[in-house]
Request: fold
Amino acid sequence: MRWACSVCGEEHEGLPLDWSYDSPSYWEGPRHEEDVLTADICSWTDDVGERSYFIRGVLHVPVPELNDSLRYGIWSSLSQQSFDRVLELWDAPARTEEPPYFGWLSNSLPGYPETLNLKTDVVTADLDLRPRIVLHDGDHPMIREQQEGITVDRLLDLVGPRLHEIALDR
Ligand SMILES: [Zn+2]
Reply:
């Protein structure tokens, strides 16, 4: 699909639908020996000695016109108890029977009012799949978009800035 880009005015080919973040917003690199960041989990100790725990999941925003979804690979915080449970069940097929874990969204997504600290359910998926991140009900636009989906026009509004932000980073 070719589409007219609102940022550069050119036409681009193909719509990126997977947008991922390598770490939670607050990650500044390991500063203590026990700080850890992998493709799936993150944990660190802050300056006052408090430890934070995060997991990477996928938040789907449906695009009904495309019969597809925009998929954000983003991070949610977890309690220590939930984090320990996730690690304990990492290789257990029965992990899908877990109730959702509570968390706080831990990335700032462009194109929305601040998304940090929206309440989430982290829903454990089958082995080898990242958990689904589902926002709690509320009146934030991103919550509405996750529940109701977005139009292709709205998707294009999000994609242009995203594409060029990535290009600038490289
Ligand atoms: Zn462009």
Summary: Residues 5, 7-8, 10, 12, 160, 163-164 surround zinc ion (CB under 6 Å). The chain has one domain: 16-151. The helical segments are 80-88, 141-148, 152-169. The first strand starts at residue 2 and ends at 4.
